[in-house]
Amino acid sequence: MANKTIMLGNEAIARGAYEAGVKLSSAYPGTPSTEISEYLAKYDDVYTEWAPNEKVAAEVAIGASISGVRSLACMKHVGLNVASDPLYTFSYTGVSGGSVFVVADDPGLASSQNEQDTRMIARASHVPVLEPSDSQEAKDFVKYGYELSEKYDTPVILRTTTKLAHSQSAVELCDRVEVADKEYERKVQKYVMMPASAIGRHVVVEERENRMAQDAVDFPVNKMEINDKKLGFITCGIAYQYVKEVCPQASVLKFGLVNPISKALVEKFMAEVETVYVFEELEPVIEEQVRAWGFDVKGKELFTRQGEYSANLLRRVLFGKDETAFDKQEAPARPPILCPGCPHRSVFSVLNKLKIHASGDIGCYTLGAVAPLSVIDTTICMGASISALHGMEKGRGKEFIKNWVAVIGDSTFLHTGINSLINMVYNKATGTVMILDNRTTGMTGHQEHAATGKTLKGEETYAIDLAQLCRAVGVQNVIEISSFDVKGLEETIKKSVNGDTLTVIIAKAPCVLLKGQKFPNKCVVNADACRKCGACMKIGCPAMTRGEDGKVKIDATMCNGCGLCKNYCKFGAIETVER
């Protein structure tokens, strides 16, 4: 087979893994990497799964590699932090079957809490990194990654970015290559990382990295284009596309292997070109190495370390102006907001009424930090809401947390929240933890997890009971309640935060965007009864507006009929009716 089709970068990565003969893939959903696993799940030849977190996903992939098959682990950049513990050791042990970790960075913070650069972690862990610049390369580099992995006995990181993951270009499809399983051999010195073994393996890692750096001069993923010798660029990834758009006649050294980079290629390029710019998003990883070798280049003193790069950024630096085909117009602000009927809004409305602070976590519910709900005070990383609340209690005392709760989603609780809850039980905490159970991994696009009863491939499986799980680790006071039971939530939260017992409140209601959700009702306003008090507006539902007369209006096309607004109207001006 040899035909072309248009593919997203993430779809092309999945195709590359399929064509490379990968047998196992494990991942935790995280934008911008999520769709890789969803596309890969469509191939019956590859076992695919959602793991509870990235550390587990990495360890599953490592186990498969050691057993002798090609494996894949996928995550976003902050997920690599969670997976870094096994990754650093996997670098020492090396592979049996080839193993690739796809890590998606997020320049511009489209959906993340920081802008870290995966190449920095790769350099510290001595793991080679490939970085494609379009969908065709995304597919091809995955396949090449397995070749490098098995040739040099190392895991390989394929680094992608938001722009590459979610942009489209033509891809030539090939047949799947069935790779024979490696025969398993027991190798204690290689795979059991006791200190005595690790000492020897560290030497192997250093020798491997030096050999790869020397060999990289001939790697097909690195390309040198000598054109105008007065102006040149050293670049990689999506930034290459901006260079070609703005300066098509410039000379370019494009690194596909961005760690380690080839000194010989840099020497050759610098000898040919008069003025050289290093154009790379985020950290000056390539630039610092090139400067360390004694070469004079221009880089981050001209280009920012923050955000996504663009063709216009390059134009501004080189020519002092943008080049646009239309007049710039400021688009109206569109801040993110919880959906109409979102169960999180109901919970946060109660917390806001009670003037309760919330230690927050990663998920849709982070939006509870903004007006008018304004309850989330902290967001650090996955699972940190519970640990941070515990730290507040132990640092400031029980009185301090009597107007605090920790809020965490069901998927995030299973990711790393459970460990933090165990810590609270073990160290005799008395705080209140609220698990906002909307039956999905919401912010990344509604993926299944261990408590939904469905696998990545949609197969029925055991659904973990969150209440039983909390009781099993020692929480004596576990309360399950509907997220829309406003009065019940108010009474429960008041009692809990003023008590002396560790309490877990599981607020349950499915995400309104889940497939199969039906909304038979809608809310309507009786204009004659509306007193313009604005109490219903305080919940911040986007379906609700004020008319010119100051009275509330509800957009029937947006309303999901949850009835939350009705609960806050003291004058009975809002009714729930059938659609």
Distance between the termini: 51 Å
Number of helices: 19
Mean pLDDT: 94
E-strand count: 23
Largest sheet: spatial strand order: 3-2-4-5-7-6-12
Rg over C-alpha atoms, rounded to the nearest angstrom: 27 Å
What's the shape? globular
List keywords for this structure.
single chain; 579 residues; 7-stranded mixed sheet
Short description:
The protein has 19 helices and 23 strands. The protein is of the alpha/beta class and 579 residues long.
Describe the structure.
By secondary structure, the protein is of the alpha/beta class. Helix content is 35%, strand content 19%.
Question: Secondary-structure blueprint of this entry?
Answer:
Blueprint: E1 4-8, H1 9-19, E2 24-27, H2 34-40, E3 47-50, H3 54-67, E4 71-76, H4 77-93, E5 99-105, H5 118-125, E6 129-130, H6 135-152, E7 156-161, H7 162-165, E8 168-172, H8 188-191, H9 195-215, E9 223-225, E10 228-236, H10 239-246, E11 250-255, E12 257-259, H11 263-272, E13 275-279, H12 285-292, H13 311-319, H14 343-353, E14 357-359, E15 376-378, H15 384-396, E16 404-409, H16 410-426, E17 432-437, H17 466-472, E18 477-482, H18 486-497, E19 503-508, E20 521-525, E21 544-546, E22 552-554, H19 564-567, E23 574-578
